[in-house]
Amino acid sequence: xxxxxxxxxxxxxxxxxFEIFAEMAPDNLEYDDLMLFEARFEDExxxxxxxxxxxxxxxxGADVDLSQCAEVQIGLAGDEVLDPVFVRMLISRDPENxxxxxxxxxxxxxxx
Length: 112
Description:
single chain, alpha+beta, Nuclear Transport Factor 2, Chain: A, 4-stranded antiparallel beta sheet, 4 strands
């Protein structure tokens, strides 16, 4: 069983999230969102680590230990929130059990 000391730091999780996002965004964002990302991300882009949302088991199954994960959202900075959010990511903080699941923005109102 992992202890908190063995888990990846939140800083490392954020760095990993940005790397994965940058690699996968061109193939997963809709064209308009990709253009928005490329035009504004350098100045306004951001990522936040949140408490893992309770809806993850319906996306990844019940066998994922959410206590060993972090949720990262990547988007553009709005007024104290990210707006739009381009992706929600569930990332394992266990260095021995690497895992990432992504829910991409697909329409103005939904992440899939």
